[in-house]
Specification:
With about 200 residues, the chain is an alpha+beta fold. It has two domains: about 50 residues; about 150 residues, Methyltransferase, Cobalt-precorrin-4 Transmethylase, Domain 2 (2-Layer Sandwich). The chain contains five helices and nine strands, in the order αβββαβααβββββα. The strands form three sheets. A four-stranded mixed sheet has the order 1-4-6-5. The protein is elongated, with a radius of gyration of 23 Å. The termini are far apart.
């Protein structure tokens, strides 16, 4: 019995040490994640402050029309064009919930246009737009994150450049878009071919 008691004591000490190390590691990891989130948030604030450029674009929403004060599904095509332009150029960040002047408008009105009125529903809707307009494979080149700025939710789509040309396919046309400066432009077939040839050089 005495030997068993000693074994249980040793086991208890061992489990206590393991648990202690686990919680210390967990605390350090959470602190590191918190620090990284603060740095990302600061970077995002600086990006917005710097304004739109070749690698950064602002959009107020994906579906809510602030001028008409109602849902406008045509805005989804604008999102698809912007993402395509980034993919066909050097990549970039599409920041949603921020107007053209860099004012934070948030995502609340956009959320209300969705079946699932939350971040998960929003992310699914963005990937639906990408998959429908650009093709399913394009989803893998886009990474979605959410942040709180001035008490409002903001969505950031980090867009990777594509090695092959990406087109927007709506019901009538298939169009090649490219990001140039702080705007996204459609190219004719000849312009697209010439552009893709220069990218190979």
């Amino acid at each position: 019995m005495r030997g068993m008691s000693v074994s249980l004591t040793i086991l208890g000490i061992f489990l206590g040490i393991v648990s202690g190390l686990f919680f210390i590691t967990l605390r350090r990891k959470n602190k590191l994640i918190g620090t990284q989130q603060q740095l990302l948030l600061r970077d995002l604030e600086e990006l917005i402050e710097a304004g739109e450029n070749e690698r950064v674009e602002f959009k107020s929403s994906i579906r809510y029309d602030y001028f008409r004060k109602t849902t406008n599904r045509e805005l989804e095509l604008v999102i698809a064009k912007t993402i395509t332009g980034f993919m066909n150029a050097k990549g970039g960040k599409l920041i949603i919930g921020v107007d053209d002047d860099g004012n934070i408008v948030g995502l609340e009105k956009d959320f209300k246009t969705l079946k699932h009125k939350n971040k998960d529903g929003y992310e699914r809707e963005i990937f639906r737009i990408i998959s429908t307009q650009l093709g399913h494979e394009a989803c893998f080149s886009n990474h979605i994150s959410f942040y709180k700025l001035n008490g409002e939710d903001v969505c950031v789509i980090a867009v990777e450049p594509s090695k092959k040309p990406i087109y927007v396919s709506d019901t009538e046309n298939t169009t090649f878009y490219v990001r140039t400066g702080n705007a996204t432009y459609p190219l004719t077939v000849k312009e697209a071919v010439d552009y893709l040839e220069t990218r190979k050089l």
